[in-house]
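Reopening closed ticket. The problem is back. First fold of the pair:
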Amino acid sequence: MTQPIEMSLPGRISVVIPVYGPGKCLTELIRRADAACQAVGADPIQFVLVDDNGPGDAWTEICRLAAARKEILGIQLMRNFGQHNAIMCGFKYCSGDIIITMDDDLQHAPESLPALIAALLMQNADLVYGNYDSKKHAAGRNLGSAVINWFFRLVFRTPVTLTSFRCMRRELVQAVLRYDLNFTFIDGLLAWNTSRIGSVIVPHSARHDGRSGYTLRKLIVLAMNMFTNFSLLPLQMVSLLGLLAAGGGLFLGFWYLIAAIMNWLVVPGYASTIVAVLVLGGLQLLSLGVIGEYIGRLHLNVNRKPQYVVRASTDRTGPVEVQ
């Protein structure tokens, strides 16, 4: 059982939950989160539930919950825009001074919310990650997460371990909301805007419903989003490969010149030609692919591919705003 944590809360708490699937765990998640935060004297939590158009009819469940309680705001997106874009949508509509992101499948224990908030306040941090004592993901998901974390540490030069269980101050969220382009990587945007990042150990549970929407392929694509949005490292690596290929070509040419003078070549030409064509052709295609990735993203951003589009909202105080 989670022990009570004494702290002075700076204001309201908002919990942003991207929903991908039927949303069967939402009722229990909200009940347990309420109980955990009431135990430390928090005001009623605002829940922002963003339906990211996954399999199942999550929107019906979200509307039912929102109708029963005014602190619950439901937002339905017009198609599946991805978890990070759905979180950006939730950021825009939340109103808390402390904002928490968590998954909808109860793998993040709601009882850990006070521990995250306490760590944010005691560490004087702008952002705190809930790091797991032991992961209950499948092997492929763990491999993909390891790739993401390795890339993140390489790009941002920080030892942080990323998770989707985050607690942050409103000022940081306001800074992140300035980004309105499509290729969104939340953790990169957060790291761009603050160096006050902490962590706290939290339990991790097995999924209560369905399967994770993150396949290994999607995690690798997310890693590519991070590289191409926040770093020139791929272009620098291509430049280095080009330099090495040019240096190797000059060295090989010099060696063949010596070999020809010394009459060492028995069957001249074939092997060196094939090796040169394969190596240089592969490097050229790799270089064009990396450059094309950057140009393609620029093209889509110039054409204003939407970060997300809202279809409906349970907020009855005004019209839905389309992004």
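Second fold of the pair, where the issue appears:
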Amino acid sequence: KANFEILNDVVFNQVIVSPAADDPTTQLIMEAIQQSGECWVGGSLWNGKKVIRISICSWVTSLEDIQQSVHAFIHARDSIIGACEK
């Protein structure tokens, strides 16, 4: 999980995750993932809290693609939270 909390029961292809940050930081992390070009994610609300929504919808998505996306999440979180701590 790389310290991202999966909030929903993953039934098909939708995954709702939280970087365990406040709403403004979650928004910045989501935007950094989008700007990386590594993968596309969207925002949503889960029980009133801002979250990141992932949709895996292509049959050609490989394990390598997933690993690259996870790396983009980790890099975005670490760069945003690191910048906020300075």
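Update: turned out to be a display glitch only; the data is intact. The first strand starts at residue 5 and ends at 6. The two ends are 25 Å apart (CA to CA). Please close again.
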